[in-house]
Design a protein that fits this description.
With 256 residues, the protein is an alpha+beta fold. Helices cover 54% and strands 20% of the residues. The protein has six helices and eight strands. It has a four-stranded mixed β-sheet with strand order 4-2-3-5. A two-stranded antiparallel ribbon has the order 1-6. A two-stranded antiparallel ribbon has the order 7-8. Helix 2 runs parallel beside helix 5 (223-236). The radius of gyration is 35 Å and the shape is elongated. It starts with 5 loop residues before the first helix and ends with a helix. 17% of the residues are buried.
């Protein structure tokens, strides 16, 4: 007869099971202790470096905010003063007679409401350089027959928009209506807020003045200083100006 006893086998296996449990518990405990010691060691090794990096991030953040405030401050001008100067530059470079104008850009925008689509009237402050004959005595510029009147003026070189309801200008902070801010910062990116695509020298002049104001800490810049910078800018670009006028003269001759 077989001498193996089922109950003895069960008890033996139960003892082995308990041993394996204790072994597992010890291993997990040893692992936890090892991890705790390792983390403590790593924290000690990186503590000084973390403090250094945190200080560096804070310092750089302060500098970044400081330079952002400088960009906004030094790129803000009295709109009429800078507008007249920019108009003069257009005359010198391209021979186009424009004047500074500040008014309202009034247009209609379709909007979908609860009761269907409807037209809403939108008023935006408009600052531009424009032909004298296109000036409105009421300083109001309204779209005609569904056409964007301002874009028509701009595309025909009868106007240069300094500030209007473009996506860029919406990023700008609220400033005095008599002022204009040429640069805005949003989400860490710098935006030039005016439309000078075909007149890049206008942006070049603005950048020159901004840097002059920064280097000389000119929170407010006087007309006399702007005029001096204007003279220097024209003198520095004399070759370009002469070439543009020569090229325009040749075009006029060919059109005869």
């Amino acid at each position: 007869m077989n001498d193996i006893n089922l109950f003895d086998l069960f008890l033996e296996q139960q003892e082995e099971y308990q041993k394996s449990l204790k072994k597992q518990e010890k291993t997990l405990k040893d692992k936890s202790n090892a991890i705790e010691l390792a983390i403590k060691k790593i924290n000690q090794e990186y503590e000084d470096q973390e403090k250094y990096n945190e200080t560096r991030v804070n310092n750089n953040s302060e500098l970044l905010n400081k330079y952002a405030s400088y960009i906004k401050m030094y790129s803000t001008f009295n709109a009429k003063l800078i507008g007249n100067i920019l108009a003069y530059l257009v005359k010198v470079f391209d021979g186009i007679d424009l004047v500074y104008e500040s008014g309202d850009h009034i247009y209609y925008d379709s909007d979908a409401g609860w009761w269907g689509s409807y037209e809403k009237v939108i008023h935006n402050t408009l600052k531009m350089l424009v032909k004298k004959e296109d000036l409105n005595l009421n300083h109001e510029y309204t779209d005609h027959n569904g056409k964007d009147y301002i874009k028509m003026l701009e595309s025909s070189s009868r106007a240069i928009i300094i500030e209007d309801a473009t996506p860029i200008s919406k990023f700008k902070l609220s400033i005095d209506e008599d002022d204009i801010m040429f640069y805005s910062i949003k989400n860490g990116k710098i935006f030039f807020t005016s439309s000078f695509d075909n007149y890049s020298y206008l942006k070049d002049f603005i950048d020159l003045v901004i840097n002059y104001r920064f280097l000389n800490q000119k929170e407010v810049i006087k007309k006399e200083e702007l005029m001096q910078l204007l003279k220097e800018f024209i003198s520095a670009n004399r070759n370009i100006i002469d070439y543009k006028h020569h090229d325009n003269s040749k075009k006029k001759i060919r059109s005869l």
